[in-house]
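Morning F.,

Quick status update on the modeling queue. The single chain you submitted on Monday has been processed. Sequence for confirmation:
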Amino acid sequence: MHPLDALTEIATLLERERSSRYKSKAFRAAADAVTGLGDEELRDAASLRRRKGIGDSTFAVIQQALAGEVPGYLADLRERAGVQRTSTLRASLKGDLHSHSDWSDGLTSIDLMVDAARALGHEYLALTDHSPRLRVANGLTADRLRAQRELLGAFTGDGFTLLSGIEVDILEDGGLDQEPGLLAELDVVVASAHSKLRMERGPMTRRLVAAISSGRMDVLGHVTGRLVEGSRGTRPPSALDAHAVFAACAAHDVAVEINSRPERQDPPDELIAIAMAAGCLFSIDSDAHAPGQLSLLDYGAERAERAGVPSERIVTTWPLDRLRDWIAARRP
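Structure tokens below.
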């Protein structure tokens, strides 16, 4: 295999298994370093070792690929990945409404996220970097968000559309952390709570219901904020009145996100059942922070199918025209 393909696949698999971001970034840096090099340049070992972005592990991968082998590092990752999760529902998903780039806390540039989405067969992807209050995630000010929007048209074409969006923080009073006029201009608004997750049940419920009732959000992201595994440790779900929150979602036609990240598994199964009974729509999203994480939709689709969520109530199974009509009809 070509060294560039080996390095890129390794980075993608590391991202999918949510390994250390430094590992995946190292392999993406090495892929950048060999992009455009001819066979003779790749085989000049001394020169290659001096090239910025090439370290011991990535050099070994390049050498093994040049020798016609599947690099050992890649073989190990493929074995760990095993059989990919599949479901009937996964094949029905046409896009993803929650993803991040290096404009906020994502690991890579927009173009690499788009390339990965296209490779998965997506018809659309919403770029939803964080809002300004989330400084730890380099959240976008209004000016930065406007600047980002100006770039997005270049990524649309050949049956794929990159949607402008944001994952806007739900503030303690239920307000949304971005200019209302700017939110109205975006294709997709995902709103999530990222702070004060241990609020008491009553205030948290009022907070979420106020945001849902604002008419300025389309998807309620990772509703409980829980973490059930992973490098960040675990975190209990926020206390909230799920019946009240999902009744508000149904009344205001806000989709409930089924977050595909294995460390979140949010909402919990019992809350998905409450949302279904309330008549909610759903959005199966990857919450990807790197290209390899876009394929985490496998997990979300599997959970939704196991919970019995009908595909027609999942907005990410809809073609783009229907998705746009739904968003336009519910905006003020």
